[in-house]
Specification:
Layout (H helix, E strand, L loop, with lengths): L3 E4 L11 H8 L4 E3 L6 E5 L3 H11 L8 E3 L3 H7 L5 H10 L4 E6 L14 E5 L4 H10 L3 E2 L14 H8 L5 E4 L10 E4 L6 E4 L5 H8 L3 E2 L1 H4 L22 E6 L2 H17 L4 E5 L11 E4 L6 H18 L3 E5 L7 H11 L4 E3 L1
Parallel strand pairs: 1-8, 2-8, 4-6, 5-9, 10-11, 12-15, 12-16, 13-14, 13-15
Antiparallel strand pairs: 2-3, 3-7, 4-7, 5-6, 9-10
Bound molecules: threonylcarbamoyladenylate (TXA) and magnesium ion (MG).
Magnesium ion binds next to loops.
Length: about 350
């Protein structure tokens, strides 16, 4: 299959440009499209055959459910069994935006979309191209991140093409995404809401709107033997080819430790990648040194994480040493991804 890429100006989307993409969706095909978090692989959420194609293109286990993307709140009403009051409140506060809510599904939603679950994950993205595609196609879009299963999520169209070339008919290139890590997932099907995946919308932000919110205890387990409630969180995700280790501690000690590890590895002929920051990158002497951005700007750090993991794969390094990123607001979301990429290997100095 030939994969066509169409470029659009995200600030100025014209529905006419999305005509072909909408036709692909209406005929049960897949289109990759930008959202504000990461690129998604979209298909008609109510068409079981279309959902199956998504699993195939990603090489994703079929028990791992998809998020249904909507453009209007009424669409959530049309696929949920009941919409709890807290969903209305959260939608009012954070939609459109990087928040996914889990509610009980009704019969309209095929089990192929929800990986066999009786619940459905729903998100209203803020990205103008995503919104325009949902509206223009007249379909809600089931969309996982547009990477091959186990690879870092794509933050630009080039990443999508790396993974999906020849597997899907169309990619809409709307430039780089804004946030760079996936949406926060909150489960509203139980009395006390629970965050199943941390993201840009923090627990504190959710609590300011709906009161007490728990974090899935399965996420806290260092080695992930606790069972996370979102099926996707149990897989070893985002693994770069080079073996990644996080070095945690005071900045000066971390730099020293990473340099020691680097010298030792290079003496043995091992190629080393290092993840630092704008503040520290000049202190390192690895084969490839990449900066996550400035510690003064935590959004830039979230935004660069996946791109950096992909760059290391291209550079072909054997091991990667990374600083730790417990930034005040979205540090939990960043570290959740980085720890997974590292298979939870952490050295504390
Ligand atoms: O930011 C995002 O959410 C991106 C963009 C494209 O919108 N999408 C995304 O989808 O990250 P995906 O498929 O890569 O991750 C969805 C996660 C998986 O961990 C999955 O297990 C979980 O959501 N999930 C989906 N439906 C669920 C449900 N009914 N119950 C529990 N977890 C669910
Ligand atoms: Mg994903």
């Amino acid at each position: 299959m030939k994969t066509n890429t169409i470029k659009v100006d995200s600030e100025n989307v014209c529905p006419e440009e999305l005509k072909d993409a909408s036709n692909v969706i209406r005929l049960g095909g897949i289109v990759a499209f930008p959202t504000e978090t990461v690129y998604g692989l979209g298909a008609d959420a109510l068409d079981s055959e279309a959902s199956k194609k998504i699993y195939q293109a990603k090489g994703r286990p079929s028990d791992n459910p998809l998020i249904v993307h909507i453009a209007e709140f009424d669409e959530m009403l049309s696929i949920a069994k009941v919409v709890p009051k807290k969903a209305f409140q959260l939608a009012e506060a954070f939609w459109p935006g990087p928040l996914t809510m889990i509610v009980n599904k009704n019969d309209k939603v095929p089990y192929e979309t929800t990986g066999g679950m009786d619940t459905v994950a729903v998100r209203m993205p803020a990205h103008p191209v995503a919104r325009a595609l949902i509206k223009e196609s007249g379909r809600m879009l089931a969309a996982p991140s547009a990477n091959t299963s186990g690879r870092p999520s794509p933050t630009c169209a080039k990443h999508v093409l790396e993974d999906m070339d020849g597997k899907i008919p169309m990619i809409i290139d709307g430039g780089e995404v804004e946030i760079g890590i996936e949406s926060t997932i909150v489960d509203l099907t139980e009395e006390e809401p629970m965050v199943l995946r941390p993201g840009y919308i923090t627990v504190e932000m959710l609590e300011s709107v709906i009161g007490k919110v728990r974090m899935d205890p399965g996420l806290m387990e260092q080695d992930c033997i606790g069972k996370p409630k979102a099926p996707g969180m149990k897989y070893k995700h985002y693994a770069p080819h080079g073996e990644l280790t996080i070095v945690n501690g005071e900045e000066e000690k971390v730099v020293k430790k990473i340099n020691e590890l680097t010298d030792d590895a290079r003496n043995r002929g091992i190629r080393v990648g290092i993840i630092g920051t704008d503040e520290t990158k000049l202190f390192y002497r690895g084969d490839t040194v990449l900066s996550m951005g400035s510690r003064q700007d935590e959004d830039s750090i979230a935004k660069h994480l996946y791109q950096i993991l992909r760059e290391f794969d291209e550079a072909g390094v054997d091991v990667i040493y990374s600083e730790s990123f417990q930034t005040p607001r979205i540090g939990q979301a960043i570290m959740n991804r980085l720890l997974k990429a590292a298979g939870h290997k952490v050295i504390t100095v």
